[in-house]
Amino acid sequence: MVEIGSVIRAKVTRVEPYGIYLDHEGQTVCVLAPDIAWRDTRKLVERAHLGEEYEVRVLRYNYRDRIIVGSIRLLHPEENPYRELARLEPATVLRGWIQQCARDTVTIELPNGAWGHIAKRDLPPGVQKGAPMDVAIASLEVDEGRLWLEAALPTRSEANGSPPQPSGAKV
Fold first, then answer.
1. Structure pTM?
2. Could you give the residue ranges of the DSSP H alpha helices within the chain?
3. pLDDT digit string, tens, across residues 77-117
């Protein structure tokens, strides 16, 4: 058995819509779609091919199914769009676009490819997919790629009817 946290080399044996299966010295390795790459959103059948080899960081071991669960994206921190966000000053206003409206949560995509979530109850009524939205970071877990956002509060001039001023943040 391999050690959690170690890096192994494995060969693709199966590609599914939800992830890829690989072989490492006779052991099955599963890398789920979100753990394959930070930014590549193409379908997995376009990205991974049978016989390709990847380095995989071991995240955990599924003892019941005897499967190693791993991540490829964690081996490429230079591609992590959330690292860029961690360098911003608190309350920096970011412009994003609504990508999905679920039951209680709205997903916002930022220009650098990071995705964040905001509670629907914190938004004005009638938000729609594709609409721009000014947001600020509420909570950020950089290496996990988890981002919670909050609606950006209008500045004093915006509250008085003046047009919003760009934040100048590069993301």
1. 0.75
2. 44-47, 81-86, 156-159
3. 999 999 999 999 999 999 999 999 888 999 999 999 999 99
For residue 140, give the H/E element and its range.
strand 132-141
7: tokens are 């890096």
In this model, does residue 168 exceed pLDDT 80?
no
Q: Where are the alpha helices (DSSP H) in 3-155?
A: 44-47, 81-86
Q: How many domains does the chain contain in total?
A: 2
Burial of 26 (0-12, 13-18, 19+ CB in 10 A): exposed
Q: Domain residues for 40?
A: 7-77
Distances (CA, A) of 139 to 37, 69, 93: 22, 26, 14
66 and 95 share one domain: no
Which structure tokens are listed for 115?
């995705």
Gyration radius of the chain over CA positions? 20
